[in-house]
Specification:
Four copies of one chain form a homotetramer. The first copy, chain A, is of the alpha/beta class. The first copy, chain A, has one domain: Alpha-Beta Barrel (TIM Barrel), CATH 3.20.20. Chain A is 36% helix and 16% strand. The first copy, chain A, has helices at 46-59, 83-96, 110-114, 130-137, 153-165, 192-200, 209-213, 216-228, 255-272, and strands spanning 18-22, 25-29, 35-39, 63-65, 100-103, 119-122, 143-146, 171-175, 205-207, 233-237. In chain A, strands 9-8-7-6-5-4-3-10 form an eight-stranded parallel beta sheet. A two-stranded antiparallel ribbon of chain A has the order 1-2. In chain A, strand 1 and strand 2 form a beta hairpin. In chain A, helix 1 packs parallel to helix 2. The first copy, chain A, is globular. The relative contact order of chain A is 0.16. Chains in contact: A-B, A-C, A-D, B-C, B-D, C-D. Chains A, B, C, D: Residues 22-267 form the DAHP synthetase I/KDSA domain. Chains A, B, C, D: It is an enzyme of class 2 (transferase). Chains A, B, C, D: Its EC number is 2.5.1.54. Chains A, B, C, D: It holds the Pfam family DAHP_synth_1.
Chain lengths: 276, 276, 276, 276
């Protein structure tokens, strides 16, 4: 018997469909839909972020991403703009009508962050930060739960269970690559996890090919693979100028390349019978 | 600088296209084509094999697979029919006109095996059996080189280099999953390897979702992901009666499910602009 | 150039020696000493804990362990007694004169926990909980920093760097096993990390064979290996009745087996020229 | 139930003790003994090899190692002297009276190799080369079976089972490190495997810290850890001039450092009650 309950397919009739309302309409995440989340790794400044947000909104992106609190391996790296970044995200949403998602790192920041954004994200390194899971579980915001980079699918679903057991059923799983011995790429996307999770759970699952691969050239083929494998969406890093990015420039797409990918995704979504 | 030379993209103008002639025409493996290889894990008997070979040939499969020498983790498991299996493969080819591929395990068997089949396969466990690589490198048959289940892409390309340096340029790389900590699936398909290999090398790359996942339900989504990620083909285990199979029944598709997958593959190949 | 600075060997003259004062004297952790930390996985009740604390103190254990806040994979597992557990730890210390260590999981609990114990522990799952690292870095308590179960040594030292950069130089690294494909044991102890860390850093390093192996029969040989490999100490789970333990009973030693191990450790410490 | 039979502890009364006779006496490998195998990675030339063989013999080494057929990741690396190397090994044995061990890579070479040496070695990359396992299983020479760098313990014991089922009960298991995500070291020694294998099997187990770590500075601490963990011996790479070595110089000990390690090993063997 599987140790997770609320997250288990058996506990829910059909698939969970998560709806996020905004002035532009309702974004739906789950079976039957193909959701595209895009934006730069970090919110680096007001002008730049509002600029790219407008462009991405015009392209039809469903959800805007941008980090205000960044988990960095080194204490000496840029760690995000904090509350200032949150304010920029809120402004971007107001201007574009597109809902926004950002990562929260600390239990003490959950209340602050949820006041500014539509969707909370728990990052890979915090997938087993059980206090944080419970805290986002006490909010009424959907939560994108990234898979720990060395977490089994069972542990991942148990992390979702923590959020759900705390009262929040709106969990979106995000496969973002696992750590292996391979050195040519940053992480290894577990593409099989998409269908395995669909078998085990009723929760939506999306894929983040940008963090998973760490190489922009691989983002397009892996994003396409994700849709073909049955994922409910993708999360893509896009930057006006990847080589100027304060973090993760190597894996960010230019706007031109993102436009090409978006066309690919639309074609595949059609083949798969998914609304986009 | 990369340590492989003949396998490196720089050493070859354009992509390598491998052609296999048979009475039915020429099978092409490489960029621009989508090749489907199918058949049971092992050749278990003459009647059964000829039967499924005919059906698969009628469905349009490009290459028939079937193990005559099986590498088994336990010395007490069914290890294949040996030369009798090779004869059945040759007969299937004669009847259907579809070329056949089989694995060779021992340097001493290379001459025997190449007398019966069109394509040689080196399995995951033998990817660094350097004597075997050199021996198949001395034949004039195309070689499907499966990635070692814990091999880096660099080691994999160096294994291809062994075959090429021995005189055989016709190597087809096959991603078949790597070993990770995950227990719900047998192995983890490294979908990103498809595009990374395309960047590094001019050799064709295909994906084996059957061995990679170990679960038949995952074969369809992962095979589709492979095509969307840019793979030049897929290798699929199909069995008339998966639950009766002497090996790997859990991962084999029924003929009905394979037919469904084949339709999916055709649609995706069209989207990708690949001939099938 | 290595990305860590304060943790790097070059930044410190000789090895860091951490001293913890108590009514019994001063416990020293670092090169030249062999420190034994022992106790049950979790503080399960006042009577039981005080009982085992007295016995372990009499045996000469240098530091008592016991979890008050337990990070559990499932939200439905016993998660510790919380502040009540902290009070029991403080009482055990008062009675025995042996300093105590416990894990802290949430930034909001750091102040509370440090009021009761002598040494703070950051667990494997929180090794990259950067907020927590900074928070324990602002205390004046030594911190046992467990290696993330899939963390590279570089990431581990960067996690130590977070604590040190926040103002706390007293970090004790603890190898507790990494996740691999092996299923017979829970994790795989990276015994080579002991000497590699000694080469890279001036910080003390200890080994936790109990969590690393998950099997009590392996605790003795792996603990001995740790001392022979140059570790500055070991952390051992001991329980009066392993089969009654609320968590991790399978890996806990009985008091009898712990006594045997302690004799082994003393002999090896002597061979290694370490004070115990 | 475990899938291996002949290798299983239950199938044998007590531990297997393997005896190798030579003009100097009988070398014993198994419980109660601490066997030291040493020599350069490859036999690079007659003079050099005989020279180091004499020195190692004088130091009391029980078995001399040296590769004549070397499995190299690249086809362009030095692959050993072949039969010439075997002749040098045989001469070294004749002069020193110390038995010799070398790796065999190809089923076709087994007969040749066994004519020259006392112990055959199957390397990590060939642990699941089942034809080779069967072929060495048909000889009457003891076989050192290295663990595949990504093999589970169960697969390792099943590989031993192949040799035993073919008629050769004299298998010596050798842990040589597994592949993980860590990049500071070449492989990660699974020190816990020593005791786990002792629990599962009656076969002797030794450790090769040279290949496992890839760094000579780590060889001493890891070799010591192996003895403390209960290993029946160690296999150490020693070279007169590590920086001139044609292969694996970075992990080879100088004769001076090997002498220091040998003293350590003797002390630990004494503590462990093992004959050396």
């Amino acid at each position: 018997m599987k140790p997770f309950k609320l997250a288990a397919r058996e506990s829910h009739e059909g698939d969970t469909l998560i709806e996020i309302n905004s002035s532009r309409g309702t974004v739906k995440i789950g079976e039957g839909y193909c959701t595209v989340i895009a934006g730069p790794c970090a919110v680096e400044g007001r002008e730049e972020y509002l600029d790219i947000a407008r462009i991405l909104a015009d392209m039809g992106v469903h959800l805007l991403r941008g980090g205000a609190f960044k988990p960095r391996t080194s204490p000496y790296s840029f760690a995000g703009l904090g509350e200032e970044g949150l304010k920029i995200l809120a402004e971007a949403k107001k201007i574009t009508g597109v809902p926004v998602v950002t990562e929260v790192l600390d239990t003490r920041d959950v209340e602050l962050v949820q006041g500014y954004v539509d969707v909370l994200q728990v990052g890979s390194r915090n997938m087993q930060n059980f206090s944080l899971l419970q805290e986002v579980g006490r909010t009424d915001k959907p939560v994108i739960l990234k898979r720990g980079f060395a977490a089994t699918m069972e542990e991942w679903l148990l992390a979702a269970e923590y959020i759900m057991a705390a009262g929040n059923p709106r969990v979106i799983l995000c496969e973002r690559g696992i750590r292996t011995f391979e050195n040519y790429t940053r992480n290894t996307v577990d593409i099989g996890a998409v269908s395995m999770i669909k078998e085990l759970s009723h929760l939506p699952i999306i894929v983040d090919p940008s963090h998973a691969t760490g190489r922009w050239k691989m983002v397009r083929p892996v994003a396409k693979a994700a849709i073909a494998a049955g994922a409910d969406g993708v999360m893509i890093e896009v930057h006006q100028c990847p080589e100027c990015a304060l973090s993760d420039g190597k894996q960010s797409l230019t706007l031109e390349n993102f436009a090409v990918l978006l066309e690919d995704i639309k074609k595949l979504a059609e083949v798969e019978g998914k609304k986009i």
